[in-house]
Amino acid sequence: MRIHHLDCGPARPLGGALMDGVSPGAVGRLTCHCLAVETPRHGVVLVDTGLGLRDMLRPAGRLPAVNSALLRFRYDPDRTMLRHMKRLGLHPADVRHIVMTHLDFDHAGGLVDFPRATVHLMEAEARAARAREGVLGRARYRPVQWGDTARWRTYSDREVGRWYGFDAVERLDGLPQEFVLVPLPGHSAGHAGVAIETPRGWMLHAGDTYFNRAEIFDEPPHCPPGSAAYEAAMAWSSPLVRAQQGRLRALARDPDAPVVLFCTHDPVEFVAFSAWSERQRAPGGEEDTRAA
């Protein structure tokens, strides 16, 4: 199994460290941390897709204007999942499955770039996306990005088992048991984490359950004020977001849980996982991980 960590929606919001906690100037940095996983028998599996090629080329009408103005995306087609894959020598037709944390515009934009892939997500998220209720629902969910929704495979709360104390969908149709969908509602109605088992333990892509590593790994937990404001504005349920963050903090501190976790938008985490991937890249080893 080879795991590529890819930034498929780089953003440069104003605010510097007020947004990301580290940037010294007036401009901050946020990422859209996606995964492309090469599997032995199931083709390439994506975790989220970031912004798609059409979003990068013609963002007006495809992306919500207010959010785009705040985040200040770098509209570079070469940063899409489609172009990343081509640079890695992977063929888009080899993408058979896409596992979604949720369907927000900055996560689902590339779905239309992989029209043959089965899309796995929680049933509650599919229902919320189709309803597009309220101002927030209309902003975050962009049907123009989805392509044919008949290829969606949704999972209900009745299908869950357990994974390190969390509810979990342990059997995703057509995927090996190394892929687990972990419901984490709060940021959106059907938000989920995606857990992947590797020879060195589990990694959990926590999506937008948190926006900055300090919310999970610092004591006391905190978030840069700009990111905290955006996180709150985009939350379907802020109390649920806080509850899920508390559960992730407990997981991160559990010595009996061989799990590393990361979120979508933290640039420091992305750089760390990129460097980690480079160190772990070993021909003939158990796992080959790469980042770009």
Automatic annotation (TrEMBL):
Keyword rRNA-binding applies: no
This protein's record includes keyword Zinc: yes
Domain Metallo-beta-lactamase stretches: 31-265
Extent of the signal sequence: none
Single GO term (MF): metal ion binding
Family membership noted in the UniProt record: Belongs to the metallo-beta-lactamase superfamily.
Alphabetical list of Pfam families matching this protein: Lactamase_B (PF00753)
The protein's name in its UniProt record: MBL fold metallo-hydrolase
Superkingdom as given in the UniProt entry: Bacteria
Keywords: Hydrolase, Metal-binding, Zinc
Organism: Roseicella aquatilis
